[in-house]
Specification:
heterodimer; A: alpha/beta; 2 domains; six-stranded mixed beta sheet; three-stranded antiparallel beta sheet; B: 10 helices; binds magnesium ion
């Protein structure tokens, strides 16, 4: 199957106060449609930087990004879920979710906006809260709203930067299950930065481990377990251990 | 919308205590001193306040004086806001523009607005327009500074969300920068209204004015009518309090999200 996202030899160097700071030293990988890929690596190795480049929020010095074209013929777009939700606190949950749809870049008709908002509110179990402001929601609900906002434009690829790391383990598991459900319902592809080996093995079809800064791909670990996965399953534990060692080894 | 809740009402009662105490001490002192040129009696002050539509000392009534002052403040304050908000938005968004303008702003800002009076009179003549200029000068800087702070305080991640959805420059401004900066702009307006209200009284005290609360106080001073001055001060205080209450209600109504997300 043709990959939905091709990352080729991406390089990035920041110029800081202490001279040049190479962050990414040639990163390459492909992501297939409907795949969930987790990106792991030591802190400060450049995971957020890479995600921001893919999202178009930053530029690479060298290398290329290819995204499969969508059915309208345009370039497929990505959407990102930030670590700390980044919802607009002055907009209701509803208005936050449909924010992107109302911009001139998408200009979705208002009845279609309403239709998608209803579907997303139901999908993320926020239907009763469409009029609430973000500060009236719990942490997990806020993060679900942020996920809904990212999904609203129906992007083929959703990028997530440690999306659930601020949540308690139970809420976190709920949201992980939600990601799996969204993948099977909407056929979305996910690239998720995580620090948590259990989360990575629970979600991912494949785990990409980066080396310390300047980052390269240190290992690619496929996770061939059926869904839903059981974290107590010996096969699960074995892969989790392998991932942990890969990240530590990279460090 | 309920402006005053029950606990707020109870707090009002607590606050009233000191006011009553102050009035009682004042009245006791006035009764002991028995000299209207030093301390007028509360009763005389309230006699002026309770006839707000009657001519005061043969001049305009209290209501007329207050209306004149309010009109001057609203006009000057409005002009200042119309200039300061757009300028603040520009300076806040562009470090480059800021480096050109900040030194001049920082030098002009500490100058008390009333110091401009001679220039104001030379440029605009005695009366309304000079007073407007003084008020606008006083009101301008708090709005400007708060607007700049507001824009600079807009979270980077909010701006990035707009970028992620391919918002145009104008859309980014309209949907993120402006709403994100609005609570601070509102704070600036609130502070600046207070400054404008103080400026109007000072500006009206200067020669050549014929109405306004500042004029009334100066006029009563020349005639030695201290109970009128007391009444004027109370009206100034009450109008200031009322305006501030409105601003605060607006803040709670529209910007309850501020700092909580
Ligand atoms: N805007 C910037 N200017 C200069 N250096 C930067 C900038 N952004 C990131 N860096 C540097 O690039 C490196 C990678 O940062 P990045 O945020 O991508 O790491 P990360 O892998 O996401 O770390 P963490 O797991 O802690 O979130 C770090 O050394 C950081 O100091
Ligand atoms: Mg990071």
């Amino acid at each position: 199957m043709e990959p939905v996202l091709c990352v080729r030899a991406i390089e990035k160097t920041f110029s800081g106060a202490d001279g040049a700071c190479p962050a990414l030293a040639g990163i390459s990988f492909d992501i297939a449609p409907r795949e969930i890929v987790c990106l792991m690596g030591p802190s400060g190795c450049g995971k957020s930087t890479l995600l921001r480049i893919i999202a178009g929020l930053d530029y690479a010095d060298r290398g290329s990004l290819h995204m499969a074209t969508d059915n309208n013929g345009g370039t497929a777009r990505t959407a990102m879920v930030f670590q700390e939700h980044a919802l607009f606190p002055w907009l209701s949950v509803y208005d936050n979710i449909v924010y992107g749809l109302r911009l001139s870049a998408q200009r979705v008709p208002e009845d279609e906006v309403a239709r998608r908002a209803e579907a997303l509110l139901a999908l993320t179990r926020l239907s009763g809260f469409s009029r609430s402001l973000p500060h009236q929601l719990s942490g997990g609900m806020k993060q679900r709203a942020a996920v809904a906002r990212a999904l609203a434009g129906e992007p083929p690829v959703v990028l997530m930067d440690e999306p659930f790391s601020a949540l308690d383990p139970f809420t976190r598991r709920e949201l992980e299950d939600e990601v799996l459900r969204i993948r099977s319902d909407l056929k979305t592809t996910f690239l998720i930065v995580s620090h948590n080996p259990e989360e990575a093995v629970y979600l991912a079809d494949r785990i990409i481990v980066l080396s310390p800064r300047p980052a390269r791909v240190a290992a690619e670990i496929p996770v061939r377990l059926p869904f839903p996965r059981n974290p107590a399953d010996p096969a699960f534990l074995k892969i989790r251990e392998e991932v942990t060692r890969a990240v530590l080894g990279a460090e | 919308m309920v402006l005053i809740s029950r606990p707020a009402l109870r707090d009002c009662g607590k606050g009233l205590f000191l006011i009553v105490l102050l009035l009682a001490v004042w009245e006791a002192a006035a009764l002991v001193i028995q000299n209207n040129y030093i301390l007028p009696q509360i009763g005389d002050i309230f006699a002026v306040l309770f006839q707000p539509a009657a001519p005061v000392l043969g001049g305009p009534s209290m209501i007329e004086n207050a209306t004149v002052s309010l009109r001057e403040v609203l006009t000057g304050f409005g002009c200042a806001a119309l200039l300061a908000i757009p300028l603040g938005l520009v300076i806040g968004s562009s470090r480059e523009v800021g480096t050109y303008l900040n030194p001049a702003i920082q030098i002009l800002r500490p100058v008390p607005p009333i110091a401009w009076m001679p220039f104001a009179i030379a440029w605009f003549g005695i009366g309304f327009h000079s007073i407007l200029f003084i008020i606008a000068m006083g009101a301008f800087f708090p709005i400007l500074i708060n607007t700049v702070d507001g824009v600079q305080g807009v979270r980077r991640s909010w701006v990035e969300v707009a970028g992620m959805f391919h918002a145009t420059t104008f859309e980014r401004f309209r949907t993120v920068i402006l709403p994100g900066a609005l609570p601070m702009i509102w704070t600036g307006l609130r502070v600046s209204f207070g400054v404008a209200w103080m400026c109007v009284v000072a500006a009206e005290m200067l020669p050549g004015t014929t109405a306004g609360l500042g004029f009334l106080i100066m006029y009563a001073y020349n005639l030695g009518q201290l109970q009128v001055i007391g009444a004027g001060m109370i009206v100034i205080g009450l109008i200031g309090l009322f305006a501030d209450t409105l601003f605060r209600a607006g803040q709670e109504r529209f910007f309850s999200w501020q700092g909580r997300d």
